[in-house]
Amino acid sequence: MSSLSTRFWGRWGYERIPIHSDRQPTRAKCSQSRQWGVVAVVFSVAALLWLTTANLRRRPYSPLDNYQNLNSLSVTIDGPVEHSPASRRAIVSSLYSDGFAIAVAVAGYSARSANVSARLLLPYLEDRVSEKALCIVRAVGWKPYPVPLILPPHGGEGIHPRFREQYTKLNIWNLDQHDVDSAVYIDADTLVRRNFDELFDSPFNFAAVPDVYDAGDPRGFSLTFNAGVLAFRPSSKVYEDMRRKIEIAEYPLKQAEQAFLNLYFGGTCVRLPYIYNANLAIKSRSPILWQRLTDEMRVVHYTTLKPFIHDGRASDAILTSTDIEEAMEQGARRQGGFFEEEVVWWKTAYRRMMSEYGDAIRECRV
Question: What is the DSSP code (8-state) at residue 92?
């Protein structure tokens, strides 16, 4: 009997048919053994077929297979595309705790270093971010403004704990109230390596990069998008519509606003190339593809490794220079130095930022 069939029958309490005996078996016993062996094989094959078809019947959730037509927003903007001036463009991120102040500062500094022609606007949670943290991000050019916390739907049931504040991201669609026509959102754990001004003049209302999962995740490359980098046209009407739909839409709640946005924009999202959201998971799955993209990467997304977090433990306090140096050294050594080059990219931006703005940032800590 095969090891696979043995595992199957063992699971249901069947014992293996003995294959060794002190006495020579009779012809009748040999025939009976063969019959039982055939029966066992037949049942094993039938069971495997049943399990396989059952798995096929239980298809994983997909926002397009489960499409609910939540919005009527057109794919392209109405009328011809006009070049928007820098004053009406925005790079926007988010700050929900002091622990990410340095990371947000580096992200903004890297965008400035890449000469992206747009304002730096930073929504933050007023009761969770200190004046010291706001001082740090202002030092490199961010203009912070307070936004209300958007609680997860259904009382937060089923949501991953570290995503509880993430629905607050939806506030960025209100940027039209800040005289913004076109915007690009970047997560705090991103680094801008090259200019992406072309995104501001895109004719599309919403664009994002397909998601990629870590090497140990069978989902691999996906048609769903990652919400760490978003190119969009702000609209208070869209914001109000999303707020109404959060409670009635049906989608997996664990991944919070990313799952909701994939359902809301799933059928109208323009999928951007990976260079606009170079998720480190790409390198884990395909180092060859990562190498192909490296020279054109606009934004690197430190998903599986954050060079500013030591031992993988996020802090709610402003990170010290010692914390960050230790985190960068540790990150460069992880997985035998697999992400050493990418850590160096972030380290270079951080040290250049401190060279230019270090005095102002240190004064903020006092």
Answer: E
Quick check: 217 and 320 in contact, CB under 8 A?
no
pTM for the model stands at 0.82
* Coil/strand/helix, residue 112: helix
How many CA atoms lie less than 13 Å away from 49 in the CB half-sphere?
A: 6
Q: Decide: 92 and 122 in contact? Cβ < 8 Å.
A: yes
Token pair listed for 359 = 């005095």
Domain with CATH 3.90.550.10 in the chain: 86-365
The yes or no reply on domain 86-365 and CATH 3.65.10.10 is no
**Per-10-residue mean pLDDT for the chain, 366 residues long?**
39 37 46 60 63 56 83 82 88 96 98 97 96 98 97 83 88 97 97 97 95 85 93 96 92 88 93 97 95 97 93 82 94 94 98 97 93
- The residue assigned the tokens 């022609």 is 117
Neighbouring C-alpha atoms within 13 Å toward the C-beta of 176: 12
Q: pLDDT tens digit string along 94-118?
A: 999 999 999 999 999 999 999 999 9
Non-local (6+) Cβ contacts of 210 within 8 A are 221, 222, 223, 224, 225, 226, 271, 274
- Cα separation, 328 vs 320, whole angstroms: 12
**Integer Cα distance of 361 and 128 in angstroms:** 19
Phi, psi for 364 (deg, rounded to 5)? -65, -30
